[in-house]
Amino acid sequence: xxxxxxxxxxxxxxxxxxxxxxxxxxxxxxxxxxxxxxxxxxxxxxxxxxxxxxxxxxxxxxxxxxxxxxxxxxxxxxxxxxxxxxxxxxxxxxxxxxxxxxxxxxxxxxxxxxxxxxxxxxxxxxxxxxxxxxxxxxxxxxxxxxxxxxxxxxxxxxxxxxxxxxxxxxxxxxxxxxxxxxxxxxxxxxxxxxxxxxxxxxxxxxxxxxxxxxxxxxxxxxxxxxxxxxxxxxxxxxxxxxxxxxxxxxxxxxxxxxxxxxxxxxxxxxxxxxxxxxxxxxxxxxxxxxxxxxxxxxxxxxxxxxxxxxxxxxxxxxxxxxxxxxxxxxxxxxxxxxxxxxxxxxxxxxxxxxx
Length: 355
Known about the structure:
Structural class: alpha+beta
Strand order of the largest sheet: 2-1-3-9
CATH architecture of the largest domain: Alpha-Beta Complex
Strand content: 5-15%
Order of helices and strands: HHHHHHHHHHHEEHEEEEHEEHEEEEH
Number of domains: 2
Low-confidence stretches: 1-29, 132-136
């Protein structure tokens, strides 16, 4: 779990000047306030390095406990208590209650902040210097639903999946095993290096191989791994934001796809949305059922401008805003999801788009 960057260590003059301008007055029972606020912060922010450090500092400096923060901070992506403790002890930021309230507001719970202000008049400052970087919506959400989702309201998930299968080229098997993943490997060049971690929290050299290598391993009967990174690895060690060597840094990967998924939209509505977009000619390369409540869509993108455009379209519709990084994991088609025991089914593929 690599959380460090210039924000955490205090290195980097511009960042340091910004972070140390906090001026927060703590209420007498600040730990209680900090606990209440932390509980209202969307845990998706725990998966974003910069936000994680800021929330850690703000909660710790407001009297919070390491144990409570470890409980909040442990996500599907990061769950090593010892490394969380190391960050807790080494973080140099001076953020406080104001930063916690900022993230609570972003998480949609401003009512809690107003209650704390009422209970502690003059004791809680909402001042912070954190930028709001939410992209401006470029679509009308109401009209988008009316055009893309509502017309298929009468179709259930099974019928929608069947229609996606018929629109797919090549047609997926939608079953467990290596068959569909072998097909997906056809999107890549034989010498591309792909990462299939044994554990999503640790990316080691043994998890990387060429497409040809993975094909041979799967044909030889190797068990599918639950996740893979769809953007090819360079094969070289990269560097993190603070200059530390890493095999998982963004500089290690070459952008080919962006991952779009919806955690709050009903699964049937997700299927309706993608079917309508496909019929309009907006075709993803791969759609994979996560085995739980979402569809993972891989959309071709090679530049950051393309990534920004894609997110500006899908964020207003409720897409997860935290899947932008080039080293993001996605669900492997045909693998069994460990926590659910369900198949991560390949629903759709457009081989031509992927190429």
